[in-house]
Amino acid sequence: MKPELTSLKKFRDILAFMNLPVFSYIDSDDFAIIKIHDMGLKMPYLTPIFRPDYYTLTIIQGGKGTFVVGDHIYELGPYHVFMKQPDIYFSSGWTESPVGYSISFTRVFFEKYFRNGIDDIPFKNNTNALNYCLNKSDFSEFEEICAEIYEEAIAVSNCKYEIISNLLINMLLLIQQHQSRLKVEIHDEKNAAIVTAFLKNIDQNFNSLISGESITLLRTKEHAKLLNLTETYFSKVISKTSGKTINQWIDGRLIDEINYLLKNTDKPIPEIAEMFAFSDLKYFYTFFKKNTKNTPSSVRKDFNASDSDRAHVYRGDVVNIRATW
Asked: In the chain, N or C: fewer CB atoms in 10 Å?
């Protein structure tokens, strides 16, 4: 059995779907903090597949789990700090009861209190998530901030979100200290802003494709038009500033999304091809093999071969799930 693929995006809807408590202090989908150890998870536990519209920060003092973000797998254990971007396929599994906090916040929440938004907190190597194992001393700083945020969240105060946002930015700055800087020309603010806008437009395009709101995969011409730039200038800026071409960015994201659906869902391959604007199934197979050296069918077959009879609790029911969990 594979985790169920859902279309839910909002934090409270996702908790309810998993039959987990939605505490009364969680009064917004733009920000929430929970103590994971208070959620009543029965081990081993597996979540459905979501594509949340919020950032997720997970601070783990104890326990053991595996998070799947897009086509990437992250192992979590004691003293881990994990963060993922919004609008990416995400599922998680726990084999040992987690102790710690989970914080979710949307871009809207962040931009409400910080004019520049969150774009200047870069993810390592422009991946969709980061995962750090810290020493006990460094981890305690994160744990203390989480405890303060939690106390503010459950309090009745007209200014609690202003206080929470300041605590949150402190935590993000701590994360930034543990990151390797992106190898981009940050000193050129204009070029950096173009790259940031381009990556954001890629996100929006893929979200529209997956939701069915669009049937067009944007390429260089369309992205340049969105940013009011000539194709030549736009291409030079992206290549020079990020070290990757426009098509490398788009094709890399495309392969990542396709791989995830092949491995983690039973969606028919022709439907996956159509979802990402491939009108010619033969070309879809050619494109995929050129970029991965494998066929879509072989990727799915090889991944499914890892199935086992290991039992997990899924939405309150015991199920068999693959060994990688």
From this structure: N
